[in-house]
């Protein structure tokens, strides 16, 4: 949206420069593809003449700069890209207005400028580092000025001294020349740290404004010796600068890149512009004030020519926050407030304005009434003064991060004990998330001792067998009795001893022969008493359904019975407990009972599986069941999860937790290396060390360096060890192996005898006083304070 009082005209191509005639009623614009003269009307521009006409449109018509004589109404001059300086006469009859071409420069001409009082003098600055003064009456070069620099970017005649002109170059220098003397310049000084692109003389004061690539505009007082008066800081390289007429402290500028707006600055408030004009959609290439300080013209690479009125300006200071707050690392708060805040100004109702192509909101243009705008210009410089207030953090509780750093432990204990201690410290200072991370480290990398089952009484030894006819045989493979009430016998460690079945009519014979006692009339005998079996009298035929069937194991879990014991037999065991031929130890009858699984072997073969133990039961009762190891659970890899947690804390700014967890892990640290690269580890350690040194925790920082596993970090202990020497007389820091610059004429005196020390010299590192070695020894044997009278408790090593 273009303000109502701003007029615009489109061009055939982007213009590089513009110039006004002496009455400011006409404007000429020049570029590579455009060269026109417009008449400035009240509400629009009217084209007067198109100078880019003719059959031979060569490089003389492609202009970089244009100047209009301040005395002659029809005389123009352009700087061409081919190094030519072309003079144009608008009063010449015919279509071609070209008067004369000067081809004396060897490279591109950057600037042309007419003398303010001599209409026949024209000066030019070129890329070849030379300036040439042309006499238009003689149509020849009057003088050549050699700058001994890379290139000249701008030349301007002084309005205060008729024979003086200023030239700026790309090496950052400013030269002042007398047009009558071409041998050497009058003055030369370095104005900027980068190339200087433009300069402009103040109409009332002997000030010269310079614009540079270093994003600054500097105002120099050239009355005697060049003196820097003001510096304006911008956001981009400054390409052009022009003083505002009738305003002593205000100057307009436009950027060379990035910024498309034209800013008007008050040199007394250099950080924020007084007014901004953001109508252009591309970089502004030239600006020129009319005789009225409230109107100026500008052209841009967007092929447009604008006339701006100051009443349509936007004022960023009205939207800027005049207050600022900052918090230091030690908890101090600093508040800046304006000393003289701007009063409430009356504004016109206007909507927010958006610049096409930028997509960002701009300050509303033309929002101030004329009276309010005048008040703003009057009060604007005073608004730069501010009051700075500091609120100290002394007396408040210390920072929890610093307090934790003092109490954390990094070495000397196992990983899980260090993590447990650090978790308690973190929770003591209400850092519960950090404490949770330490608890995870303790649980993952800790090895707590397993719970042992209660002690059990050993089972009674088996009775002695006196039957000489009994044949000793190996224990048979037996099948567990899985009925709930069938465990009547207990073995070693309280585990159930399994039983075998003997028919009743055979059991009586066995009972009489062996003298073993058992349940009356029962066919089930303890396996512990079945070591001696009468093979001839025993009937090994098993009745049908002698054993209750066992339910098959779940489909998703392997059968512990099959894997631990059933595979050991020749034919294996069936889930129902039936035996396979040839599985017995004797191998005589081809059938045998299946033995119970070895629970100890099962627990070792399956890590994490539950080991069950039954206590020694009373007769006719079942013993309690004890869980020795943890139940079987899925395996989870903790390293990637822990690495993700450390990255999260580091992203939140907590490098303390990330660095210390890596240190405390010790030998487990390598588990995180695939997920945390070495560069990030070094960044965490160096960041934590810098934090500790910032808070003067030197011992803790040294401990971190000592525990570091990266060579780039622990090598700091070999690089940062230094001893600072200060003068014992004035306390000033002295250079290594050199005397104090301030006390150089005075030699070092002994603090005891006050004589010049020659030979061995002993000095205290605390107060820097010393003297003869023998004198210091004798003094310290009788006294504790320094002999110089400073009150320090000196110690002689």
UniProtKB/TrEMBL annotation:
<dbReference type="GO" id="GO:0034198">
    <property type="term" value="P:cellular response to amino acid starvation"/>
</dbReference>
<dbReference type="InterPro" id="IPR015943">
    <property type="entry name" value="WD40/YVTN_repeat-like_dom_sf"/>
</dbReference>
<feature type="compositionally biased region" description="Low complexity">
    <location>
        <begin position="570"/>
        <end position="592"/>
    </location>
</feature>
<dbReference type="GO" id="GO:0016239">
    <property type="term" value="P:positive regulation of macroautophagy"/>
</dbReference>
<dbReference type="GO" id="GO:1904263">
    <property type="term" value="P:positive regulation of TORC1 signaling"/>
</dbReference>
<dbReference type="GO" id="GO:0005829">
    <property type="term" value="C:cytosol"/>
</dbReference>
<feature type="compositionally biased region" description="Basic and acidic residues">
    <location>
        <begin position="449"/>
        <end position="458"/>
    </location>
</feature>
<dbReference type="InterPro" id="IPR019775">
    <property type="entry name" value="WD40_repeat_CS"/>
</dbReference>
<feature type="repeat" description="WD">
    <location>
        <begin position="145"/>
        <end position="187"/>
    </location>
</feature>
<dbReference type="GO" id="GO:0061700">
    <property type="term" value="C:GATOR2 complex"/>
</dbReference>
<feature type="repeat" description="WD">
    <location>
        <begin position="102"/>
        <end position="144"/>
    </location>
</feature>
<keyword id="KW-0479">Metal-binding</keyword>
<protein>
    <recommendedName>
        <fullName>GATOR2 complex protein WDR24</fullName>
    </recommendedName>
</protein>
<dbReference type="GO" id="GO:0005774">
    <property type="term" value="C:vacuolar membrane"/>
</dbReference>
<feature type="region of interest" description="Disordered">
    <location>
        <begin position="550"/>
        <end position="601"/>
    </location>
</feature>
<dbReference type="InterPro" id="IPR001680">
    <property type="entry name" value="WD40_rpt"/>
</dbReference>
<dbReference type="InterPro" id="IPR036322">
    <property type="entry name" value="WD40_repeat_dom_sf"/>
</dbReference>
<dbReference type="InterPro" id="IPR037590">
    <property type="entry name" value="WDR24"/>
</dbReference>
<keyword id="KW-0863">Zinc-finger</keyword>
<dbReference type="Pfam" id="PF00400">
    <property type="entry name" value="WD40"/>
</dbReference>
<comment type="similarity">
    <text>Belongs to the WD repeat WDR24 family.</text>
</comment>
<feature type="region of interest" description="Disordered">
    <location>
        <begin position="449"/>
        <end position="476"/>
    </location>
</feature>
<feature type="repeat" description="WD">
    <location>
        <begin position="189"/>
        <end position="230"/>
    </location>
</feature>
<keyword id="KW-0853">WD repeat</keyword>
<dbReference type="GO" id="GO:0008270">
    <property type="term" value="F:zinc ion binding"/>
</dbReference>
<keyword id="KW-0677">Repeat</keyword>
<keyword id="KW-0862">Zinc</keyword>
């Amino acid at each position: 949206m273009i303000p109502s009082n701003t007029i615009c005209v489109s061009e055939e191509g982007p213009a590089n420069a513009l110039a006004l005639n002496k009455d400011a009623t006409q404007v000429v614009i020049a570029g590579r593809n455009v060269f026109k003269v417009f008449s400035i009307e009240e509400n629009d521009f009217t084209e007067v003449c198109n100078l880019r006409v003719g059959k031979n449109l060569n490089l003389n018509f492609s202009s970089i700069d244009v100047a209009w004589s301040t005395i002659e109404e029809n005389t123009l001059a352009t700087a061409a890209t081919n190094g030519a300086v072309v003079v144009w006469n608008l009063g010449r009859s015919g279509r071609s207005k070209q008067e004369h071409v000067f081809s004396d420069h060897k490279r591109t001409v950057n600037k042309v400028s007419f003398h303010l009082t001599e209409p026949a003098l024209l000066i030019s600055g070129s890329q070849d580092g030379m300036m040439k003064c042309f006499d238009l009456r003689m149509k020849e070069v009057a003088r050549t000025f050699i700058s001994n620099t890379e290139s000249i970017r701008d030349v301007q005649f002084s309005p205060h001294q008729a024979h003086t002109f200023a030239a700026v170059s790309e090496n950052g220098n400013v030269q002042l020349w007398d047009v009558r003397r071409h041998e050497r310049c009058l003055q030369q000084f370095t104005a900027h740290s980068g190339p200087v692109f433009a300069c402009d003389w103040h109409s009332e004061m002997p000030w010269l404004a310079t614009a540079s690539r270093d994003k600054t505009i500097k105002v120099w007082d050239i009355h005697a010796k060049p003196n820097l008066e003001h510096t304006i800081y911008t956001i981009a390289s400054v390409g052009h600068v022009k003083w505002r007429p009738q305003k002593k402290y205000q100057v307009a500028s436009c950027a060379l890149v990035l910024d498309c707006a034209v800013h008007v600055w008050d040199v007394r408030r250099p950080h924020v512009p007084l007014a901004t004009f953001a109508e252009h959609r591309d970089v502004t290439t030239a600006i020129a004030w009319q005789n009225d300080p409230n109107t100026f013209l500008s052209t841009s690479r967007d092929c447009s020519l604008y006339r701006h009125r100051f009443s349509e300006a936007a004022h960023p200071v009205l939207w800027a926050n005049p207050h600022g707050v900052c918090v230091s690392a030690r908890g101090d708060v600093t508040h800046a407030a304006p000393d003289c805040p701007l009063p409430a100004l009356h504004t016109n109702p206007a909507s927010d304005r958006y610049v096409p192509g930028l997509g960002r909101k701009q300050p509303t243009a033309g929002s101030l009434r004329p009276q309010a705008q005048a008040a703003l210009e009057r009060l604007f410089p005073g608004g730069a003064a501010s009051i700075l207030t500091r609120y100290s953090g002394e007396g408040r509780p210390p920072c929890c991060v610093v307090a934790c750093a003092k109490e954390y432990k990094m070495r000397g204990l196992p990983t899980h004990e260090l993590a447990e201690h650090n978790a308690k410290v973190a929770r003591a200072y209400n850092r519960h998330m950090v404490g949770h991370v330490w608890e995870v480290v303790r649980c993952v990398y800790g090895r707590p001792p397993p719970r042992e089952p209660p002690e059990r009484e050993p089972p009674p030894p088996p009775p002695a067998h006196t039957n000489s006819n009994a044949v000793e045989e190996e224990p048979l493979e037996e099948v567990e009795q899985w009925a709930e009430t069938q465990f009547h016998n207990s073995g070693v460690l309280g585990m159930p001893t399994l039983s075998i079945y003997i028919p009743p009519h055979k059991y009586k014979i066995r009972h009489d022969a062996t003298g073993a006692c058992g349940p009356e009339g029962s066919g089930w005998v303890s396996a512990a008493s079945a070591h001696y079996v009468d093979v001839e009298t025993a009937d090994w035929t098993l009745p049908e359904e002698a054993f209750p069937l066992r339910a098959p194991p779940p489909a998703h879990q392997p059968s512990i019975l099959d894997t631990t014991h059933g595979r050991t037999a020749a034919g294996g065991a069936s889930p129902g407990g039936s035996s396979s031929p040839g599985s017995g130890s004797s191998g005589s009858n081809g059938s045998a009972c299946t033995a119970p699984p070895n629970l100890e072997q099962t627990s070792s073969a399956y890590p994490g599986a539950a080991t069950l133990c039954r206590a020694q039961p009373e007769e006719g009762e079942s013993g309690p069941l004890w869980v020795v190891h943890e139940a079987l659970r899925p395996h989870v890899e903790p390293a990637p999860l822990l690495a993700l947690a450390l990255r999260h804390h580091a992203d939140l700014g907590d490098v303390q937790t990330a660095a210390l967890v890596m240190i405390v892990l010790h030998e487990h640290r390598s588990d995180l290396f695939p997920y945390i690269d070495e560069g990030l580890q070094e960044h965490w350690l160096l960041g934590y060390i810098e934090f500790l040194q910032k808070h003067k925790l030197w011992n803790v920082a040294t401990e971190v360096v000592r525990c570091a596993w990266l060579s780039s970090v622990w090598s700091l202990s070999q690089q940062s060890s230094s001893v600072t020497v200060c003068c014992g007389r004035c306390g000033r820091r002295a250079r290594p192996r050199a005397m104090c610059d301030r006390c150089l004429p005075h030699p070092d005196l002994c603090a005891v005898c006050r004589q010049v020390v020659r030979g061995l010299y002993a000095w205290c590192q605390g107060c820097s006083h010393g003297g003869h070695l023998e004198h210091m020894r004798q003094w310290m044997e009788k006294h504790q304070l320094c002999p110089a009278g400073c009150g320090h408790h000196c110690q002689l090593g």
